[in-house]
Specification:
The protein has about 290 residues and is α/β, with parallel strands linked by helices. The chain contains 13 helices and eight strands. The N and C termini lie far apart (about 50 Å).
C-alpha cells in the first residue's frame, strides 16, 4: 500500500500548475520542480514578454502562453509571480476564470495582503501567501507561508511542495507574521551581504589581497551557516565554543557588543517589519 506522503506527492505531480509571470523567481521555482521530478508537461507559464517565454520553453521545456486566462483554464494551481505593483491589474483580469475553475492560488508577491488579493480575484478563493527570498534562485531559499481559511490540507501540501522545491518552508498561523518573515528572511540576505562586504573591506585594509579576502570571507560565512544548520547547539552556544578566554575572538566580540550590535540589529529588523506593514497598506489601496 502506498504511504500518504507518496500519494500526496503523486497527486501533486499530476496537477497542472500555471505561473503568471516568468521572471527570476518563477524560473527558479520551475527549475526546482523539474529537478524534483515534476512533469514538465504539467507546467505552463504566461508572460507578455515573448523573448522570456521563448527562453523558458528552450530551457525548461514547459508550455508557454501569452494570454493569462487561457493559461489558467485547466490549472489546479495558479502561482501569481508578477511584481506587486501590477498584481491588482493582473488579478482582476483573472477573476472570472478563477471563480469558475476554483484553483489553489499561490501569491509570491511581497507585501500584498490576502484581503486585497481576495477582492481582486472576485471573492471566495483558496489562497496561500508566500514570501520566498532571493537565495531561492539557487535552490537555497527560505520561504514563509500563510494559508487563508479556504485552503484545505491537500492544498497546503501542494503549496508547500512547490515552494520547498527552492529551499526551506515554514508556515505562520497569523498573516501579520508575514511582515516579520519579510524582515527576517525576505530582507535577510542583504544583512549578511553587508557583513561580508565589511569583512572583505577590512581584510583588504589589513593587507590581504582582494581574492584572498573575498574567499576567506565567503568560505567562513558558508562554514558558519552550515555548522549552525547541522549542529544541535544554538548559535549562542556555537559562539561560546569558538571564543577562548583572553583570545582574539573574545576581543573582537567584546568590541561588537560594546558598540551595541544587538540593539542595532533589533532596531533595523523592527524597522524592516514596520516598513513591510506600511508597504502592504499602500499596495492594498492603490
Amino acid at each position: 500500500m502506498k504511504s500518504l506522503a507518496s500519494t500526496q506527492k503523486n497527486s501533486m505531480k499530476n496537477s497542472n500548475i500555471t505561473f503568471i509571470g516568468g521572471g527570476n523567481m518563477a524560473t527558479s521555482l520551475i527549475s526546482g520542480l523539474i529537478a524534483d521530478g515534476y512533469d514538465k508537461a504539467s507546467i505552463t507559464v504566461s508572460d507578455p514578454d515573448g523573448d522570456k517565454l521563448a527562453q523558458l520553453a528552450a530551457r525548461c521545456s514547459v508550455h508557454t502562453e501569452s494570454d493569462n486566462n487561457r493559461a489558467i483554464a485547466e490549472a489546479g494551481v495558479v502561482v501569481l509571480a508578477v511584481k506587486p505593483q501590477v498584481l491588482e491589474q493582473v488579478a482582476r483580469g483573472l477573476a472570472e476564470t478563477i471563480q469558475r475553475t476554483k484553483p489553489l492560488v499561490i501569491s509570491i508577491a511581497a507585501g500584498v495582503k490576502e484581503t486585497a488579493l481576495r477582492e481582486w480575484l472576485g471573492g471566495d478563493v483558496a489562497l496561500v501567501r508566500s514570501m520566498p527570498n532571493t537565495p531561492a534562485m539557487i535552490q537555497s531559499g527560505a520561504t514563509g507561508l500563510h494559508a487563508s481559511p479556504g485552503v484545505n490540507q491537500a492544498q497546503r501540501d501542494q503549496a508547500e511542495s512547490i515552494l520547498r522545491a527552492v529551499g526551506l518552508t515554514r508556515w505562520v498561523d497569523d498573516e501579520s507574521q508575514m511582515d516579520a518573515v519579510t524582515a527576517i528572511s525576505g530582507s535577510g540576505p542583504a544583512y549578511f551581504f553587508l557583513i561580508m562586504e565589511v569583512i572583505e573591506e577590512v581584510a583588504g585594509n589589513m593587507g590581504l589581497d582582494e581574492e584572498t579576502a573575498r574567499l576567506l570571507t565567503l568560505q567562513t560565512a558558508l562554514g558558519a551557516a552550515r555548522m549552525a544548520m547541522e549542529s544541535s547547539d544554538s548559535p549562542a552556544v556555537l559562539r561560546q565554543k569558538v571564543t577562548s578566554r583572553g583570545g582574539t575572538t573574545e576581543r573582537a566580540l567584546g568590541i561588537l557588543e560594546a558598540g551595541k550590535l544587538r540593539e542595532l540589529f533589533s532596531e533595523a529588523l523592527q524597522g524592516a517589519e514596520e516598513r513591510s506593514r506600511e508597504l502592504s497598506d499602500i499596495l492594498g489601496h492603490q
